[in-house]
Each structure stands twice: as C-alpha cells, then as structure tokens.
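Form 7-S
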Amino acid sequence: MDWGMKNRLDRLMPGGKCFFMPIDHGYFQGPTSGLEKPGKTIKSLLPYVDALFCTRGVLREAIDPTINKPIVLRVSGGTSMVGKDLANEIITTSIDEIIRLNASAVGLSVFIGSEYEKQTLQNLSKLVNACEGYGIPVMAVTAVGKEMEKREARYLALCCRIAAELGAKVVKTYWCEDFEKVVEGCPVPVIMAGGPKCKTEKEVFSFVHDGMQKGAVGINLGRNVWQNPNAVAVAKALRAIIHEKASVKRALEIFKKCA
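Output:
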C-alpha cells in the first residue's frame, strides 16, 4: 500500500477505529427528516465524528470548506425511493471530481443477489481501477434496498467478501446476529451501518458495542444520531464506545449526563 493510501486511511480511521457520519440519504430519499439543512444538522456533531459521508452536491452547497474533517464521497446513485428498483445504480462522479473535491475516500453501494448485481459490482470494479492510481480508498456499501430481511450473517459475509475481493479497502455493512462470521470472512476493515432508526439509545449502543467486540473497526451511523433530540449526547456516547472501549453501561451514563 502506498503512502497516500495509508495516509488517507489513517486520517479516516485514527488508531484503526472510526466514527463516520453519513448525510447522503437525500441522494435517493430526498429531504430526509433531520437533513433538510445538512450543514445545520452536522454543525454541533462535527467534534465527535472522524469523517463525513456525503454527495458532491451537499458537500459543495452545505458544508463549510474550512472544516478539518475527512470526506468520504458518495459516488453512486441514479435511483430513488419512488423508482422501480434501488439497486439500478450507476457511478455518478468522475475521478476528476473526486480529486477536485479533495475526498479522502469514496463510497458506493453494491446489491448482491439483486437483478443488478453484476452492474453494481462492475461499478465497484471500475471505481477501484480509477481510484487506486491516486491512492484513494474505496468503501463498498453492502446495500439491501428495500429487502431488509437479507440482513443475516451468511448473506452479509458473502457480500463483504466479494466487495473485498474486487478491491474495496473498507466495507460498510449491517450488524447482525453472529456478526463475527461476517468480520472473520472479510480481509479488509468492516464498518457497521445504522439501518432504520432504533427505538432506544440503549438499543443503538448495544449493537455498536457488540459489533466492536466482534471485530468491526467502527460505525457509519446517521439517523440514529441526528434524528435523536439529544444528538450530541448520542454522538459523545458512541465516540466513547468506538475510541475508548466504553461499555454499554458507560455509554448510557455519558448519554444521560449530556442529554
């Protein structure tokens, strides 16, 4: 691995751990609740996250260019919640744009087992080919579209391994029961996605803690943070789990103290 790639990964994952905050939901959901004004949403949360995951449009129009946070640029899209199939994605952003925006990494979705499996894996392969020459890491997102029942260990382990085999430097996937089976079969770092909003803070802290104990290097959580009325308290507690090895009990104490 060359110096540039190592440097970008170290900035994204200080100490080998990471707390990414996704604000890319609008690329297929439109003005998601809590993200109507992304710049305002993240302002108080920036001190607690390691990187932002967003599209070029939001980055240019809503994010202060003086922020000292790495950017993971969402570079796949072309579908929406009202369309026929979320899996029918394309690469939306050129390597020139990625470099121009000074992205530390890029991310795109792959839909294993869908009608568009080959297309999205081809998107991943093309992106890796384009980014490797510039030392830019690619994060593959093992998306499941509207079929949330696919979130089980055997399926997610398959998805993560395939993404790694095609050159992804990091894989974002869902937490599940027997999560260690997902991590053990993937030769690159695995980051947990948040998925639908959890009912309680304890539920969020519990699955994050379990995933970290079973080998994940961090999280990429959005709705379970910025849709919470006490978003800063949630972010502080999650950062403690990721970077300080805090227990669920300790995370709840931090949350209650800050809420």
